[in-house]
Amino acid sequence: MKGMAFFRRWRYALFVSLILLTGYLIMLQPRWILNRLMARSPEAYYAIHTEQKIIALTIDDGPDPRSTDLILDTLNKYNAKATFFVLIERIQGNGPVIDRMIAEGHELGNHLLQDTPSIQHPELEFRDRLATAHHQLSTYADIRWFRPGSGWYNQEMIRSLERYDYRLALGSIYPFDSHIPSTWFASRYLVWRAHPGGIIVLHDFGARGIRTVETLAYSLPRLVEKGYRIVTLSELLEVAAVEGD
Fold it and tell me: Of 12, 44, 110, 141, which is most buried with the most CB atoms under 10 A?
């Protein structure tokens, strides 16, 4: 009996240790994990190497008439630019806010039609959704970037992206704002995890969008104080390309 009790305690301790380790790896996102991901997945941009203190800001799932204009107001206040990965189902009736994004120097990215995991769509269905989103977004601007819903992708999706010369954007500074409804945590996480060439991932729409306004209002001035410039994905890539020449 003592042996069984010891085994149960040992198994429980191991389980708790694995949970804590997993939480550490997810929440802290150590740089070595990022480097490993980038090395194993060169087709995806988790971050972009640069020596300059610039960071790309990306915002998913909009637009939303209640929050997107507030986000744009906050970005303007701190001369920050962003790549907005918008959903086609949320564009209808929100054309003016899309026009405002473009007029103020932000860029659009393809995030497909609805807020669903992209990897769940069979290959032909994914191609159709990608094409539909591309053609609608192209009426506003040239589209260079794609981000899969929920962040998962496969090689079939990569082949479909090549048809439109898309680049696949993920991220290296993600405060889990879609799961942790704390602007206190998200805003301080962004400042803490900032690094040259990083890609921030935040979300718009509904309560998430309002939280993003608060998160940016706290983090942007502090990032600026640290010497960072907040730019679109395309500008970050262009700066890094010039460095590499």
Answer: 110
In 3D, which of 106, 85, 73, 71 has the Cα closest to residue 211? 71
Task: Compute the distance between CA of residue 161 and CA of residue 9 in angstroms, rounded to an integer.
Answer: 50
188: left (phi over 0), alpha (psi -120 to 50) or beta: alpha
Give the up-direction half-sphere exposure of residue 232: CA atoms within 13 A in the CB hemisphere.
Answer: 17
Ramachandran angles phi, psi of 50, nearest 5°: -160, 150
The answer to whether the predicted template modeling score (pTM) of the entire model surpasses 0.85 is yes
Q: For the chain, which ranges sit under pLDDT 70?
A: 1-41, 245
Q: Is residue 46 a contact partner of residue 173, using CB atoms and an 8 Å limit?
A: no
Q: In this predicted structure, what is the pLDDT of residue 41?
A: 64
CB distance 203 to 178 below 8 Å: yes
Whole-angstrom distance, CA of residue 87 vs CA of residue 17 = 39
Longest dimension (CA), the chain: 73
pLDDT of the residue at 20: 37
From CA 32, how far away is CA 47, in angstroms rounded?
13
- Could you give the CA distance from residue 52 to residue 163 in angstroms, rounded to a whole number? 32
Supply the pLDDT for residue 43. Answer: 85
Tokens representing 27 are 């929440």
Partners of 109 in beta bridges = 85
What does the alpha-carbon distance between residue 9 and residue 15 come to, in Å, rounded to a whole number?
Answer: 10
Contact predicate 119/157, CB 8 Å? yes
Q: How far apart are the C-alpha atoms of 37 and 113, rounded to whole Å?
A: 27
Give dist(CA 125, CA 235) in Å, integer: 31
